[in-house]
Amino acid sequence: MSKVEKKVVTEKIILGLDPGTNVMGYAVIIVRASKLSLIQFGVIQMGKTGAHELKLKKIFDRVLSLVDEFHPDQVALEAPFFGKNVQSMLKLGRAQGVAMSAALYREVPITEYAPKKVKQSVTGNGNASKEQVAKMLMQIFNLKEIPKLFDASDALAVALCHHYQNGALKSKSKSWDSFLKDNPERLKSLK
């Protein structure tokens, strides 16, 4: 490479979503080379929106606006947790489907992750509590406080999980030694 040529800096924007019918978490991160940065995260409240179909429309509209604002390269979603309440599962599935549709409407590829996979990826423990996940995210992104609603940190965890699954780890050895060497902050949190 000559002195005149500039080194190409690769960057990727990931939109993480934690779909819900009353509260939906979202997070936008950017990966430049191997450095992670948080652009924005928060929640979309739908509690007073009214009928279920109006909540679904709000989810579609807000996800579409996030895609239009941040132009993510990829969208990662947390898959609904399979519980005993069939009606809740149906509503969550609809919320997830509408969020997926909004991303696909703008031709942004989507990937979904099971909740245990997200927790395992972020904390090393698939059974970690929401508080443990949030505390790990505080360390990784240098956040000053845990968000009031865990939906926001859950969405951030999904985005980070997607990065770990499809970004940094694909090009490197998959051994635990190399992983810990490349992610020393993860080791500190286990002590």
Keywords, separated by commas or semicolons:
5-stranded mixed beta sheet, 5 strands, Nucleotidyltransferase, domain 5, 47% helix, globular, 191 residues, alpha/beta
Detailed description of the structure:
The structure is a single chain. The protein is α/β, with parallel strands linked by helices and 191 residues long. It has one domain (11-189): Nucleotidyltransferase, domain 5, CATH 3.30.420. It contains 7 helices and 5 strands, in the order E-E-E-H-E-H-E-H-H-H-H-H. The chain has helices at 52-70, 86-105, 115-123, 130-141, 150-166, 176-182, 184-189, and strands spanning 11-18, 23-32, 35-45, 74-78, 110-113. It has a 5-stranded mixed beta sheet, sandwiched between helices. A hairpin with a 4-residue loop joins strand 1 (11-18) and strand 2. Helix 1 (52-70) packs parallel to helix 2, helix 3 packs across helix 5 (150-166) and helix 4 packs across helix 5 (150-166). The chain is globular. The N and C termini lie far apart (43 Å). Residues 1-7 and 168-174 have low confidence and may be disordered.
